[in-house]
Design a protein that fits this description.
The protein is built from 17 helices and eleven strands. β10 and β11 form a beta hairpin. Strands 4-3-2-1-5-6-7 form a seven-stranded parallel beta sheet, sandwiched between helices. A four-stranded mixed beta sheet has the order 9-8-10-11, covered by helices on one side. The chain folds into three domains: about 140 residues, NAD(P)-binding Rossmann-like Domain (Rossmann fold); about 150 residues, no CATH class; about 70 residues, Rna Polymerase Sigma Factor, Chain: A. The protein is globular, with a radius of gyration of 20 Å. The N and C termini lie far apart (about 55 Å). α6 runs parallel beside α11 and α15 crosses α17. The structure holds NADP nicotinamide-adenine-dinucleotide phosphate (NAP). The site of NADP nicotinamide-adenine-dinucleotide phosphate has 28 residues, from α1, α6 and α10.
């Protein structure tokens, strides 16, 4: 029996990626209900100043930075507090291994795989935001979740919405389709030719959500929705053909489940990640959040349109990678991470992101995925292939 966090039964929590957008929203919720939670560990990549400030406020037992060069500054910033400090990728894994009931997986990219798997292996409740892990290692991660008795609580607003409206009691075969909603991103109505010249600043200016740079660019290419199709397939065990995408610019309906009797259940709310994060933090209970309340009369109209797959080819590419299976989703993910970083560094244009991913998928054998070493191996190969392709474009 999982207890609901309260002052009488506080839940111990760890945040992997506490300095990011999802991590920061999680910290905000913990600061608002300190009596219900005890913080075991916090981690970051290299933002030592913010990590140390969070640690002084939340008083975790352990704090780690992935970048070894950040160690001295972190240790100095927290000296005298009694908080244990460490650095390096293995220290982030050690943070995940510590005995917290609940772990927020909010590192960006496949670098989050090893720590997330460490939390899964302990049988923890894992609040799962770091979708790239499931894209590159889906079958292996789901197998470990089952074998170790872990619980994956979906944080992504779309998957959290589906999680909230999936009826366990309805039984196998009752779900006809999942429908993921998409804002359409900042270039929803832009001609493809005009997308060639957009800047990183324009791409990260998301119309409805405030998020980290990588996921904001993924939303602009709609690769984010492609990654989410893969994520939904593994999280909910629904085949790709039964996962639809609907563009909904207001970002109020966060996704839907269509049942075989014609019923469609949706979860609604204002676009604030603190709502799905709070749902996972308090699960199976509920906790208050300061998110703006939904006022449908004031919004007036909710609109929906099919995605334009010609202007946003990332969607079909992600579907093809999922259908191909094996190593293809991991190639898609790693090449995309490299291409997005190159776009943000102004080394390639916006349209080159998806071209690079497509070329990397064509260049590498999709093979089979048997072990985590296979994942790390193909992730590295795809990063190298994408790096070469990008150098060829410069
Ligand atoms: N933002 C959202 O609203 C949202 C919504 C749904 C899903 N997600 C998913 O949640 C994940 C996090 O997104 P985000 O927007 O919060 O990202 P973000 O703002 O870029 O934050 C990423 C976090 O990961 C840390 N990190 C980066 N590289 C690392 C490495 N190599 N090793 C260890 N830690 C590392 C960062 O530390 P530093 O700060 O030190 O760099 C930071 O704490 C992504 O998978 C994203 O797709 C995000």
């Amino acid at each position: 029996m999982v207890s609901i966090p309260s002052a009488a039964t506080p839940r111990s929590v760890t945040i992997l990626g506490s300095t990011g957008s999802v991590g920061g929203n999680t910290v905000d919720l913990l600061q608002r209900s300190p009596e219900c939670f005890r913080v075991e560990a916090l981690t970051a990549h290299r933002n030592v100043d913010l990590l140390a400030a969070q640690a002084r406020s939340l008083k975790p037992r352990f704090v780690a930075v992935a970048d070894p060069e950040g160690y001295r500054a972190l240790a100095d910033a927290l000296s005298g507090t009694g908080i244990e400090t460490a650095a390096g990728p293995e220290a982030v894994v050690a943070a995940a291994e510590r005995p917290a009931d609940w772990v927020m997986a909010a590192i960006v990219g496949s670098r989050g795989l090893a720590p997330t798997m460490a939390a899964v292996r302990r049988g923890a409740m894992v609040a799962f935001a770091n979708k790239e892990c499931l894209v590159c290692a889906g079958p292996l991660m789901i197998e470990q979740v089952r074998a170790c008795g872990a619980t994956l609580l979906p944080v992504d607003s779309e998957h959290n919405a589906i999680f909230q409206v999936l009826e366990d009691r309805a039984g196998a075969g009752s779900v006809e389709r999942l429908v993921l909603t998409a804002s359409g991103g900042p270039f929803r109505t832009l001609e493809q030719a005009a997308m060639a010249g957009v800047t990183p600043e324009q791409a990260v200016a998301h119309p409805t959500w405030s998020m980290g740079a990588k996921i904001s660019v993924d939303s602009a290419t709609m690769m984010n929705k492609g990654l989410e199709i893969v994520e939904a397939h593994y999280l909910f065990g629904i085949d790709e053909a039964r996962i639809g995408v609907l563009v909904h610019p207001q970002s109020v309906v966060h996704s839907m489940v269509a049942y075989v009797d014609g019923s469609v259940l949706a979860q609604l709310g204002t676009p604030d990640m603190r709502t799905p994060i709070a749902h996972c933090l308090a699960w199976p209970g509920r906790m208050p959040t300061p998110s703006a309340r939904l006022d449908l009369a004031q919004i007036g109209q909710l609109t929906f349109e099919p995605p334009d797959e010609a202007r946003f080819p990332a969607l079909a590419l992600a579907r093809r990678a999922l259908q191909a299976g094996g190593r293809a989703p991991a190639i898609l993910n790693a090449a995309n991470e490299v291409a997005v970083a190159a776009f943000l560094a102004r080394r390639i244009g916006f349209l080159d992101i998806v071209r690079t991913v497509e070329a990397a998928l064509a260049a590498l054998p999709t093979g089979t995925l048997e072990t985590l070493d296979d994942v790390y191996d193909i992730d590295q190969q795809a990063r190298e292939a994408a790096t070469r392709l990008i150098a060829g474009r410069e």
